[in-house]
Amino acid sequence: MPCIVYIAIEFNLGVFTVTDKEVEMPVITIEAGDMSKEQKNTLIEGFTKVASETLNIPAQAFVVILKENKADNIGSGGKMLSKIMAEHQG
Questions:
Q1: Which residues contact 72 (CB under 8 A, 6 or more apart)?
Q2: CATH number of the domain within which 10 lies
Q3: Strand order through the sheet with 6-10
Q4: How much is the average pLDDT of 64-74?
């Protein structure tokens, strides 16, 4: 089954103090289908590392939120995503 993933980084949670310096606390939100515990851990570690290195913000400042969405809970064009995916497979 195809996987649809939505990823967003927001800078609105507040500030985080690191060695007397305040930095923004970015929030990384990842929305996808069902994920195993190992996949969740890999995503949290990986996105935190890349975002920290890219934005030059300490990894400790990041908050990662994972949201699992079932295909029956998503609609597009007036149809449930599960139905659209079934039509493409059949």
A1: 80, 81, 82
A2: 3.30.429.10
A3: 6-10, 27-32, 63-68
A4: 90
